[in-house]
Specification:
Elements: E1 4-7, H1 17-30, H2 37-42, H3 48-55, H4 60-75, H5 89-98, E2 102-107, H6 111-120, E3 129-132, H7 144-153, E4 160-164, H8 167-175, E5 179-183, E6 197-199, H9 204-209
Parallel strand pairs: 1-2, 1-4, 2-3, 4-5, 5-6
Helix pairs in contact: 3-4
Length: about 210
């Protein structure tokens, strides 16, 4: 029996992936970094540390240099998170709470940003556990962030279900031993074949849990 739902942030709670891609493109263009569409797909669900390791695999100095520049750039790039909340997220969270499910967040994003998003969208009270992949030995697609979330909940992987969208996130949750519901994106393509089930709406979560 499932006792908790562990959500990813980007592409699940907020529809941020295309905004983040636009933000990356602006930064890349300003710094003469050329990437293709395959690269953009591969970094969905990843994090800036891994992204710059992919761009500059032979230079730790360049990885750090551009990571610092990118983090500074992101600080000045304002996003209204309340305006990109995924449809039905609040309705779904209310149903889960009313039916005594517990909540965790397991995201590749940095912890301060995750908390800022939850607070600005007024969703913070729902989540008793928030785990950042940036604080783990390895971020997604490694299972560390999900294993830590399950541990903090005091549950077993079989008692939790993950809600993801990206290939990296799905692989992380499945490798940690969780069932995974993959929210199908509306405006980009991603490999979701490892998921337990692909869902078209967050409203499908209660239906799946009730089976």
């Amino acid at each position: 029996m499932k006792k908790a739902v562990i959500f990813d942030m980007d592409g699940v709670i907020i529809q941020s992936e295309m905004l983040y891609q636009k933000r990356r493109n602006i930064f890349f263009e300003a710094h003469g970094i050329i990437v293709d569409d395959t690269f953009q797909r591969n970094v969905i669900g990843s994090n800036p540390v891994d992204m710059f390791a992919m761009i500059f695999p032979k230079s730790k100095d360049k990885q750090k240099e551009y990571l610092d520049k990118y983090n500074e750039f992101k600080t000045d790039y304002h996003i209204e998170f309340k305006e990109i909340l995924t449809d039905d997220i609040e309705q779904t969270l209310r149903w889960l709470k009313e039916n005594n499910y517990r909540f965790a967040l397991a995201s590749s994003g940095e912890y301060p940003i995750l908390m800022r998003i939850l607070e600005e969208t007024m969703l913070a009270p729902y989540f008793e556990v928030v785990v950042s992949g940036a604080d783990m030995p390895k971020s997604k697609p490694a299972p560390d962030v999900y294993l830590e979330a399950v541990k903090q909940l005091g549950l077993s992987p079989s008692e939790c279900v993950a809600v993801e969208d990206s290939k990296h996130g799905i692989q992380a949750s499945v490798s940690a031993g969780l069932d995974c519901l993959a929210l199908k994106p509306n405006n980009y393509e991603v490999d979701q074949q490892l998921a337990t089930q692909i869902i078209n709406s967050l409203n499908d979560i209660p239906t799946w849990l009730s089976l």
